[in-house]
Amino acid sequence: MRDGFEFEVLSSVGTARRGRLTTPHGVIQTPAFMAVATYGAVRGVGPGELASLGSQILLANTFHLHERPGESLIRELGGLHGFTGWHGPWLTDSGGFQALSLGTGVKLDEEGVAFASPVDGRRRLLTPERAIEIQEALGPDIALVLDQLVPADAAGEAAWGDAMERTLRWAERSVRQHARPDQALFGIVQGGASPALRRASATGTAELGFDGYAHGGLGLGEDPARRVELVAESQAFLPAGAPRYLMGLGRPCDLLEAIAVGVDLFDCVVPTRHARHGVVYTSLGRRTLRNARYRDDDAPLDPACDCPACAVHSRAYLRHLFAAGDMLGPRLATLHNLRFYFQLLEDTRAAIADGSEAAEGLESVWERARRASEPVE
User: Whole-prediction pTM value?
Assistant: First the structure.
């Protein structure tokens, strides 16, 4: 890996592994979950609070920061670290998913993705080279290449193959463009729902010598069991000594299933977005705080949780905040969900490190993740 970066696998249970990813702005114990800070902020949660909850690394959105306030301003104000006040590691995506998701008016060809800006309506062109330039200006510790996303539950073999081949060509251009020595660059595996294409993509991407590898095109509606099979299929063709990242996943049980096949990094909007709508994950199951059943429930949200919401407030009070439209409700729910995810991964790492007791420990964590992903009975 580049100067200032190192990844070491510390222990394993089967294909599940615990590791340590060193970056210029801090060490990340893996497997790790990244909270999504789309515009450089996790909604309603400050940098100090994130650290106290257990956050190790944040993810920012290249597309949205390019649109507003612009990478030039962020670079002038100290990059993402200086601009936001989060001085730990940052990862940015390439912006391709957001550009391709704009729908009408998007033009995709070998050069890149052309689209109308949702901010000012002007035409923009996002190329592999431009995606790297923007991320070098933003200054995250980890940047990602531009890829062509084709969901695994859509299209078919021909479309998946074309997108996979183009992603490899774009990855090669990204490697040539990337020049920032203090920034790691991750390649992206594509190939839809085809095991053969996933293997070919993993092999071709690994040959380019990236610092880490991401699995793309998943978590968009495909069968969860099939998704795990596809990840496992391509993992064997990626370097064992590099970190592996499953993009955009997901529920607690999704994380544990992917960890079992060797994934090290995750991100998803699920815990924070669901929290803003009153949906919280607990060791006893998933709760919807707006439900009338919690109107006079004086129990803590999750007796096993040490977050600010669970330490002080009752389910009845949290339901009242959502019913009253008070912003404290979504904020406390967000703090809880993030703490639950971080604690789940902390316990997973501890279980993998626990030698002879590892399998039993992992089974306990897995059972908690499964319960948390299902509604409270």
Answer: 0.97
